[in-house]
Protein backbone atom coordinates (compact mmCIF):
# COMPACT_ATOMS: atom_id res chain seq x y z
CA UNK A 1 0.00 0.00 0.00
CA UNK A 2 1.35 3.40 -0.97
CA UNK A 3 1.75 6.03 1.74
CA UNK A 4 0.70 8.79 -0.66
CA UNK A 5 -3.02 9.11 -1.32
CA UNK A 6 -4.36 8.61 -4.80
CA UNK A 7 -6.64 11.21 -6.31
CA UNK A 8 -10.03 9.54 -6.27
CA UNK A 9 -13.61 10.77 -5.73
CA UNK A 10 -15.10 10.76 -2.26
CA UNK A 11 -17.06 7.59 -1.47
CA UNK A 12 -20.74 7.51 -2.34
CA UNK A 13 -23.57 6.22 -0.17
CA UNK A 14 -23.53 3.05 -2.26
CA UNK A 15 -19.83 2.59 -1.57
CA UNK A 16 -20.30 3.02 2.16
CA UNK A 17 -23.16 0.55 2.14
CA UNK A 18 -20.77 -2.10 0.83
CA UNK A 19 -18.47 -1.48 3.78
CA UNK A 20 -20.77 -1.00 6.75
CA UNK A 21 -23.89 -2.90 7.83
CA UNK A 22 -26.96 -0.87 8.94
CA UNK A 23 -26.25 1.03 12.17
CA UNK A 24 -28.19 3.31 14.48
CA UNK A 25 -27.19 6.94 14.72
CA UNK A 26 -25.72 6.26 18.17
CA UNK A 27 -23.62 3.38 16.81
CA UNK A 28 -22.41 5.51 13.90
CA UNK A 29 -21.30 8.30 16.24
CA UNK A 30 -19.64 5.83 18.61
CA UNK A 31 -17.70 4.28 15.73
CA UNK A 32 -16.55 7.64 14.43
CA UNK A 33 -15.30 8.43 17.95
CA UNK A 34 -13.36 5.17 18.06
CA UNK A 35 -15.77 3.05 20.13
CA UNK A 36 -17.64 -0.01 18.91
CA UNK A 37 -21.41 -0.37 19.21
CA UNK A 38 -22.91 -2.37 22.04
CA UNK A 39 -22.59 -6.14 21.52
CA UNK A 40 -21.28 -5.68 17.99
CA UNK A 41 -17.85 -5.72 16.38
CA UNK A 42 -17.71 -4.35 12.83
CA UNK A 43 -17.15 -7.45 10.68
CA UNK A 44 -16.26 -5.68 7.44
CA UNK A 45 -14.16 -2.67 8.48
CA UNK A 46 -10.66 -3.27 9.82
CA UNK A 47 -7.37 -1.41 10.23
CA UNK A 48 -3.81 -2.35 9.45
CA UNK A 49 -1.97 -3.31 12.67
CA UNK A 50 0.97 -1.01 11.85
CA UNK A 51 -0.45 1.98 9.99
CA UNK A 52 -3.88 2.01 11.62
CA UNK A 53 -5.45 2.58 8.22
CA UNK A 54 -8.76 0.87 7.33
CA UNK A 55 -8.45 -2.20 5.15
CA UNK A 56 -10.83 -3.62 2.59
CA UNK A 57 -13.08 -6.48 3.79
CA UNK A 58 -11.19 -9.71 4.31
CA UNK A 59 -7.75 -8.13 4.19
CA UNK A 60 -5.06 -9.97 6.18
CA UNK A 61 -3.86 -8.52 9.47
CA UNK A 62 -7.17 -6.85 10.24
CA UNK A 63 -8.02 -5.43 13.64
CA UNK A 64 -11.09 -3.51 14.93
CA UNK A 65 -12.04 -0.13 13.53
CA UNK A 66 -10.09 2.84 14.91
CA UNK A 67 -10.67 6.58 15.27
CA UNK A 68 -11.35 8.16 11.86
CA UNK A 69 -9.55 11.35 12.85
CA UNK A 70 -6.29 9.37 13.07
CA UNK A 71 -6.45 8.14 9.49
CA UNK A 72 -3.96 9.19 6.87
CA UNK A 73 -6.37 7.58 4.42
CA UNK A 74 -8.82 4.78 3.89
CA UNK A 75 -9.28 1.80 1.63
CA UNK A 76 -12.91 1.27 0.67
CA UNK A 77 -14.45 -1.67 -1.14
CA UNK A 78 -16.60 -0.29 -3.96
CA UNK A 79 -18.46 -1.83 -6.91
CA UNK A 80 -15.52 -0.69 -9.06
CA UNK A 81 -12.94 -2.31 -6.79
CA UNK A 82 -10.76 -0.98 -3.96
CA UNK A 83 -10.18 2.76 -3.73
CA UNK A 84 -7.96 4.78 -1.43
CA UNK A 85 -9.38 7.91 0.19
CA UNK A 86 -7.06 10.09 2.21
CA UNK A 87 -6.89 12.77 4.87
CA UNK A 88 -9.16 14.31 7.51
CA UNK A 89 -11.47 15.60 4.76
CA UNK A 90 -12.12 12.03 3.73
CA UNK A 91 -12.76 10.99 7.31
CA UNK A 92 -15.40 13.69 7.60
CA UNK A 93 -16.89 12.63 4.27
CA UNK A 94 -16.91 9.04 5.50
CA UNK A 95 -18.92 10.08 8.58
CA UNK A 96 -21.35 12.07 6.47
CA UNK A 97 -21.87 9.14 4.14
CA UNK A 98 -22.50 6.81 7.08
CA UNK A 99 -25.27 9.11 8.24
CA UNK A 100 -26.60 9.53 4.71
CA UNK A 101 -27.36 5.84 4.22
CA UNK A 102 -29.61 5.77 7.29
CA UNK A 103 -33.14 5.34 5.91
CA UNK A 104 -34.89 6.49 9.06
CA UNK A 105 -36.70 9.86 9.05
CA UNK A 106 -34.85 12.80 10.60
CA UNK A 107 -35.52 13.57 14.23
CA UNK A 108 -38.60 15.74 14.59
CA UNK A 109 -39.84 18.43 16.95
CA UNK A 110 -43.41 18.34 18.24
CA UNK A 111 -45.01 21.63 19.21
CA UNK A 112 -48.41 21.93 20.90
CA UNK A 113 -49.86 25.44 20.82
CA UNK A 114 -52.78 26.65 22.97
CA UNK A 115 -54.39 23.22 23.30
CA UNK A 116 -57.79 23.19 25.00
CA UNK A 117 -59.90 20.04 25.19
CA UNK A 118 -63.44 19.08 26.16
CA UNK A 119 -65.54 15.99 26.73
CA UNK A 120 -68.98 17.31 25.97
CA UNK A 121 -69.34 20.49 28.07
CA UNK A 122 -66.60 19.47 30.50
CA UNK A 123 -63.29 21.20 29.78
CA UNK A 124 -60.24 19.09 30.70
CA UNK A 125 -57.37 21.19 29.30
CA UNK A 126 -56.97 24.94 29.09
CA UNK A 127 -54.57 26.57 26.64
CA UNK A 128 -51.67 24.17 27.06
CA UNK A 129 -48.55 24.99 25.05
CA UNK A 130 -45.43 22.83 25.07
CA UNK A 131 -42.53 22.28 22.70
CA UNK A 132 -41.11 18.76 22.73
CA UNK A 133 -37.61 19.05 21.20
CA UNK A 134 -36.28 16.63 18.62
CA UNK A 135 -34.22 13.73 19.96
CA UNK A 136 -35.23 14.37 23.57
CA UNK A 137 -37.34 12.46 26.11
CA UNK A 138 -40.00 14.77 27.53
CA UNK A 139 -41.85 13.55 30.62
CA UNK A 140 -45.35 14.73 31.57
CA UNK A 141 -45.97 14.54 35.30
CA UNK A 142 -48.83 15.50 37.58
CA UNK A 143 -51.60 13.97 39.71
CA UNK A 144 -54.37 11.85 38.21
CA UNK A 145 -57.11 13.75 36.43
CA UNK A 146 -55.03 16.75 35.35
CA UNK A 147 -55.21 15.98 31.61
CA UNK A 148 -51.79 14.43 30.90
CA UNK A 149 -53.10 11.39 29.03
CA UNK A 150 -55.69 13.47 27.19
CA UNK A 151 -52.91 15.81 26.06
CA UNK A 152 -50.85 12.81 24.92
CA UNK A 153 -53.77 11.40 22.89
CA UNK A 154 -54.28 14.77 21.25
CA UNK A 155 -50.70 14.64 20.00
CA UNK A 156 -51.53 11.83 17.58
CA UNK A 157 -55.23 12.52 16.96
CA UNK A 158 -56.66 9.82 19.21
CA UNK A 159 -58.74 12.31 21.20
CA UNK A 160 -61.07 12.81 18.23
CA UNK A 161 -62.07 9.12 18.31
CA UNK A 162 -64.29 9.81 21.34
CA UNK A 163 -67.71 10.97 20.06
CA UNK A 164 -68.18 13.75 22.65
CA UNK A 165 -64.58 15.00 22.45
CA UNK A 166 -63.51 18.32 20.95
CA UNK A 167 -60.42 20.48 21.02
CA UNK A 168 -58.90 23.81 20.05
CA UNK A 169 -55.32 24.74 19.21
CA UNK A 170 -52.61 23.32 16.98
CA UNK A 171 -50.20 20.39 17.08
CA UNK A 172 -47.22 21.01 14.81
CA UNK A 173 -44.88 18.26 13.68
CA UNK A 174 -41.83 20.00 12.27
CA UNK A 175 -43.98 23.06 11.64
CA UNK A 176 -46.92 21.28 9.96
CA UNK A 177 -50.28 21.04 11.71
CA UNK A 178 -51.31 17.38 12.03
CA UNK A 179 -54.95 18.52 12.30
CA UNK A 180 -54.85 20.28 8.93
CA UNK A 181 -57.92 19.03 6.99
CA UNK A 182 -55.69 18.18 4.03
CA UNK A 183 -53.63 15.73 6.09
CA UNK A 184 -54.71 12.11 6.34
CA UNK A 185 -55.30 10.62 9.77
CA UNK A 186 -53.17 7.58 8.92
CA UNK A 187 -50.20 9.86 8.17
CA UNK A 188 -50.39 11.41 11.65
CA UNK A 189 -50.51 7.97 13.25
CA UNK A 190 -47.60 6.77 11.11
CA UNK A 191 -45.34 9.66 12.08
CA UNK A 192 -46.46 9.79 15.73
CA UNK A 193 -46.61 6.33 17.30
CA UNK A 194 -48.28 5.38 20.59
CA UNK A 195 -47.49 2.85 23.33
CA UNK A 196 -50.26 2.43 25.89
CA UNK A 197 -50.32 1.84 29.61
CA UNK A 198 -51.42 -1.77 29.21
CA UNK A 199 -49.53 -3.88 26.65
CA UNK A 200 -51.84 -4.59 23.72
CA UNK A 201 -50.22 -7.00 21.26
CA UNK A 202 -52.53 -8.96 18.99
CA UNK A 203 -52.68 -12.10 21.18
CA UNK A 204 -53.34 -14.70 18.47
CA UNK A 205 -50.93 -13.14 16.00
CA UNK A 206 -47.32 -14.32 15.94
CA UNK A 207 -44.49 -12.19 17.33
CA UNK A 208 -43.26 -11.75 13.76
CA UNK A 209 -46.64 -10.60 12.44
CA UNK A 210 -47.21 -8.34 15.46
CA UNK A 211 -44.13 -6.33 14.57
CA UNK A 212 -45.31 -5.94 10.97
CA UNK A 213 -48.96 -5.16 11.74
CA UNK A 214 -48.45 -1.43 11.25
CA UNK A 215 -47.24 -1.93 7.70
CA UNK A 216 -50.61 -3.35 6.70
CA UNK A 217 -52.50 -0.53 8.38
CA UNK A 218 -50.42 2.14 6.61
CA UNK A 219 -50.42 0.35 3.27
CA UNK A 220 -46.64 -0.07 3.27
CA UNK A 221 -45.36 -2.82 1.00
CA UNK A 222 -42.21 -4.79 1.79
CA UNK A 223 -40.69 -7.94 0.31
CA UNK A 224 -39.69 -10.90 2.47
CA UNK A 225 -36.11 -9.73 2.98
CA UNK A 226 -37.28 -6.27 4.01
CA UNK A 227 -39.84 -7.74 6.41
CA UNK A 228 -37.22 -10.01 8.00
CA UNK A 229 -34.88 -7.05 8.34
CA UNK A 230 -37.58 -4.89 9.96
CA UNK A 231 -38.56 -7.60 12.43
CA UNK A 232 -34.99 -8.17 13.59
CA UNK A 233 -34.10 -4.47 13.65
CA UNK A 234 -37.21 -3.35 15.53
CA UNK A 235 -37.06 -6.19 18.05
CA UNK A 236 -33.39 -5.41 18.62
CA UNK A 237 -34.13 -1.73 19.24
CA UNK A 238 -36.88 -2.73 21.64
CA UNK A 239 -34.45 -4.97 23.53
CA UNK A 240 -36.39 -8.14 22.73
CA UNK A 241 -34.63 -9.84 19.82
CA UNK A 242 -32.33 -12.09 21.84
CA UNK A 243 -35.25 -13.34 23.91
CA UNK A 244 -37.58 -14.24 21.03
CA UNK A 245 -35.45 -14.82 17.93
CA UNK A 246 -35.93 -18.59 18.18
CA UNK A 247 -39.74 -18.39 18.50
CA UNK A 248 -40.84 -15.62 16.16
CA UNK A 249 -43.85 -17.67 15.03
CA UNK A 250 -45.14 -18.10 18.60
CA UNK A 251 -48.21 -16.04 19.61
CA UNK A 252 -47.45 -12.56 20.92
CA UNK A 253 -49.96 -13.12 23.71
CA UNK A 254 -47.72 -15.83 25.17
CA UNK A 255 -45.02 -13.36 26.21
CA UNK A 256 -44.64 -11.92 29.70
CA UNK A 257 -46.05 -8.47 30.45
CA UNK A 258 -42.70 -6.73 30.04
CA UNK A 259 -41.97 -8.60 26.82
CA UNK A 260 -45.40 -7.73 25.45
CA UNK A 261 -44.76 -4.05 26.12
CA UNK A 262 -41.45 -4.23 24.29
CA UNK A 263 -43.21 -6.04 21.43
CA UNK A 264 -45.63 -3.11 21.24
CA UNK A 265 -42.67 -0.73 21.10
CA UNK A 266 -41.16 -2.79 18.27
CA UNK A 267 -44.50 -2.72 16.45
CA UNK A 268 -44.57 1.08 16.70
CA UNK A 269 -41.00 1.36 15.39
CA UNK A 270 -41.68 -0.74 12.29
CA UNK A 271 -43.38 2.16 10.51
CA UNK A 272 -40.39 4.44 11.31
CA UNK A 273 -42.21 7.08 13.37
CA UNK A 274 -40.69 10.47 14.04
CA UNK A 275 -42.22 10.67 17.53
CA UNK A 276 -43.11 7.95 20.04
CA UNK A 277 -45.73 8.67 22.71
CA UNK A 278 -45.76 6.46 25.81
CA UNK A 279 -48.66 6.55 28.27
CA UNK A 280 -47.38 5.18 31.58
CA UNK A 281 -45.67 2.27 29.79
CA UNK A 282 -44.26 0.75 33.00
CA UNK A 283 -47.17 1.19 35.41
CA UNK A 284 -48.24 -2.47 35.10
CA UNK A 285 -44.73 -3.92 35.07
CA UNK A 286 -42.40 -5.29 37.73
CA UNK A 287 -39.16 -3.43 38.61
CA UNK A 288 -36.99 -5.63 36.38
CA UNK A 289 -39.21 -5.13 33.33
CA UNK A 290 -39.44 -1.42 34.13
CA UNK A 291 -35.65 -1.13 34.09
CA UNK A 292 -35.48 -2.85 30.69
CA UNK A 293 -38.14 -0.52 29.24
CA UNK A 294 -36.28 2.52 30.57
CA UNK A 295 -33.01 1.30 29.04
CA UNK A 296 -34.87 0.79 25.77
CA UNK A 297 -36.16 4.37 25.86
CA UNK A 298 -32.67 5.74 26.42
CA UNK A 299 -31.42 3.76 23.43
CA UNK A 300 -34.32 4.81 21.21
CA UNK A 301 -34.02 8.55 21.81
CA UNK A 302 -31.20 8.73 19.24
CA UNK A 303 -33.70 7.61 16.61
CA UNK A 304 -37.03 9.05 17.71
CA UNK A 305 -38.40 11.90 19.84
CA UNK A 306 -40.14 10.47 22.93
CA UNK A 307 -42.93 11.89 25.11
CA UNK A 308 -43.83 9.87 28.21
CA UNK A 309 -46.58 10.22 30.80
CA UNK A 310 -45.46 8.88 34.18
CA UNK A 311 -46.53 8.99 37.83
CA UNK A 312 -43.12 7.69 38.85
CA UNK A 313 -40.98 10.67 39.82
CA UNK A 314 -37.81 8.60 39.92
CA UNK A 315 -38.51 7.36 36.41
CA UNK A 316 -38.99 10.90 35.13
CA UNK A 317 -35.60 11.81 36.60
CA UNK A 318 -33.90 8.72 35.19
CA UNK A 319 -35.07 8.93 31.60
CA UNK A 320 -36.21 12.44 30.67
CA UNK A 321 -34.29 15.54 29.71
CA UNK A 322 -37.30 17.86 29.75
CA UNK A 323 -40.28 17.77 32.10
CA UNK A 324 -43.71 19.42 32.22
CA UNK A 325 -45.85 19.53 35.38
CA UNK A 326 -49.61 19.41 34.81
CA UNK A 327 -52.12 20.37 37.50
CA UNK A 328 -55.88 20.84 37.69
CA UNK A 329 -57.50 22.64 40.62
CA UNK A 330 -60.78 21.16 41.79
CA UNK A 331 -63.43 21.76 39.13
CA UNK A 332 -60.92 23.49 36.83
CA UNK A 333 -59.31 22.26 33.58
CA UNK A 334 -55.73 21.04 33.57
CA UNK A 335 -52.86 23.33 32.63
CA UNK A 336 -49.07 23.36 32.77
CA UNK A 337 -47.76 24.92 35.97
CA UNK A 338 -44.12 24.74 34.99
CA UNK A 339 -41.87 23.11 32.42
CA UNK A 340 -38.16 23.03 31.76
CA UNK A 341 -35.15 20.79 32.20
CA UNK A 342 -35.86 17.78 34.37
CA UNK A 343 -32.84 18.48 36.55
CA UNK A 344 -34.01 22.03 37.29
CA UNK A 345 -37.61 20.96 37.83
CA UNK A 346 -36.59 18.49 40.53
CA UNK A 347 -33.74 20.42 42.15
CA UNK A 348 -34.86 24.04 42.02
CA UNK A 349 -38.41 24.46 40.67
CA UNK A 350 -39.79 27.96 40.29
CA UNK A 351 -43.32 27.24 41.51
CA UNK A 352 -43.89 25.99 45.07
CA UNK A 353 -46.57 23.60 43.80
CA UNK A 354 -43.99 21.89 41.63
CA UNK A 355 -41.67 21.53 44.61
CA UNK A 356 -44.45 20.03 46.72
CA UNK A 357 -45.48 17.56 44.01
CA UNK A 358 -42.04 16.23 43.09
CA UNK A 359 -41.23 15.84 46.78
CA UNK A 360 -44.39 13.88 47.54
CA UNK A 361 -46.28 16.49 49.57
CA UNK A 362 -49.36 15.78 47.44
CA UNK A 363 -50.37 13.70 44.43
From TrEMBL:
Gene source species: Herbiconiux ginsengi
Molecular-function annotations in GO: ATP binding; ATP hydrolysis activity; phosphate transmembrane transporter activity
Residue ranges occupied by any ABC transporter domain in the UniProt entry: 110-358
Short name of one Pfam family: ABC_tran
Residue ranges of the region described as Disordered: 1-43
Superkingdom of origin: Bacteria
Name of the protein in its database record: Phosphate ABC transporter ATP-binding protein, PhoT family
One of the protein's GO biological processes: phosphate ion transmembrane transport
Coiled-coil intervals: none
SUPFAM superfamilies tied to this protein: P-loop containing nucleoside triphosphate hydrolases
Gene3D superfamilies: P-loop containing nucleotide triphosphate hydrolases
Amino acid sequence: MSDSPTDVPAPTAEDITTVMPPLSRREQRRIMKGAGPRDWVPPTVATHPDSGMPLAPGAPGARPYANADQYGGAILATPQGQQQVSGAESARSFEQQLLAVDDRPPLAELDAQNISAWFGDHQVLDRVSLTMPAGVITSLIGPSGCGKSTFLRILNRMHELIPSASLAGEVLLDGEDIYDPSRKLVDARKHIGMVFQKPNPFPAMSIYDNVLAGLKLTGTRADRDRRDYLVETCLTKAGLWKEVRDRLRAPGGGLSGGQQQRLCIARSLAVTPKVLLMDEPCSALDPTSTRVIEETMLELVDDVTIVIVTHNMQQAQRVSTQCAFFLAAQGQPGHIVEHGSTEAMFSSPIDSRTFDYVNGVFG
